[in-house]
Amino acid sequence: MSRNGHNSPVHRPVPQMQHLPRPLFARVESLSRPAATDWHSHPWAQLSYATHGVLSVHTASGRFLAPPQRAILVPPDVPHAVLSSPRTEMRSLYLEPHVVEWAEDHCVVLEITPLLRELISAFGEVPAEYAIDGPDARLVEVLLDQLRVAPQTGLFLPWPSDPRLQAPCERLYRNPEHSVSLQHWSRELGLSEKTLSRIFLRETGISFRAWYQRLRLLHALPLLDQGHSVTDVALACGYDSTSAFIAAFRQQLGMTPGALAAKVR
Fold this sequence. Notes:
This protein folds into two domains: about 10-155, Jelly Rolls (Sandwich); about 160-265, Homeodomain-like (Arc Repressor Mutant, subunit A, Orthogonal Bundle). The protein has helices spanning about 115-125, 135-150, 165-175, 180-190, 195-205, 210-225, 230-235, 240-255, 255-265, and strands at about 10, 25-30, 35, 45-50, 55-60, 60-65, 70-75, 80-85, 90-95, 110, 150-155, 155-160. The chain has nine helices and twelve strands. By secondary structure, it is an alpha+beta fold. It is globular, with a radius of gyration of 19 Å. The strands form two sheets. A six-stranded mixed sheet has the order 1-3-8-5-6-12, covered by helices on one side. A six-stranded antiparallel sheet has the order 2-9-4-7-10-11, covered by helices on one side.
């Protein structure tokens, strides 16, 4: 199983552009199969948003996931790779740095309100070289205003930079159903549990236990998108009981797995 919950993503090319035709540029895609881009960067910001399907953006500092009603804002010049689930309807926005000066210097996952969703959809129909003093430009201003005030969500997994932690984290990321204790990991690395806990907290900002729980819950998103039952997803994410999975999911994401599955399909 691949990182975003399915097999063999096809290669998705990155547009080769020297500059944007306007401060805001839209790219609309329908991706029937799972797809992935190579690692790349560009001098403008990118909003990765899907009206259907689940998106995942990988950077050196974390893994960021977005089902519908969420989007991932990637700052300028940040190397990243984008993965999408099958049947993804993707709406990418490329933004000149001066129109998102308010943005963080790292990726964030934003909540897409109904108004912002409609604005993004409407802008997808606007010509690439829209008139800078007409109604399309005014639509852009409203869209940017709504994007600026969009709430941030916690659908991301911080990633350690310490080489000692990266390989074990990658193994867990690819196989979240495998239960690994901090004690087992400390023996593997030749560190005490206390030392390992301190390093992990320093590297990610959260405890190993919280990180591992978030990993398993984020892994559930593309599986729910593919139509797997809540029970099967709970088992695939390493939970012994469906009720424990539902309770953890609700606590972290504010809704049940069944409610989210209804939104992503």
